[in-house]
Write a structure and sequence with these properties.
This protein is of the alpha+beta class. It has helices at about 10-15, 25-35, 60-70; strands spanning about 1-10, 40, 45-50, 55-60, 85-90.
Amino acid sequence: MKKIKIEVTELDISKGYPTAPRSCPIALAITRQVPNLDVQVMTTSVEFTKNNFLGINIPLPEKVTDFIRAVDNPSAGVCYWPFSFEMEVPDDDDFID
């Protein structure tokens, strides 16, 4: 595993789809940093897979889960803007052959 900084940009926010695990703003931002992995974002975690190997589930920081809840519930009237966070992501050798 390695720790990386994820930048969620205005473009991620405008192009991302709420409740879409592979194309929400967080998924777009993470995928830009680790393009060799398949990313699925849930409310509290991210599942990484590679070449159909068993997924590795990584919990998300609280500020990210708060952001996801706000994006997924637009009727709440919460505003959101670009931000960054750090998280652990798998290395290629974390996946079993």
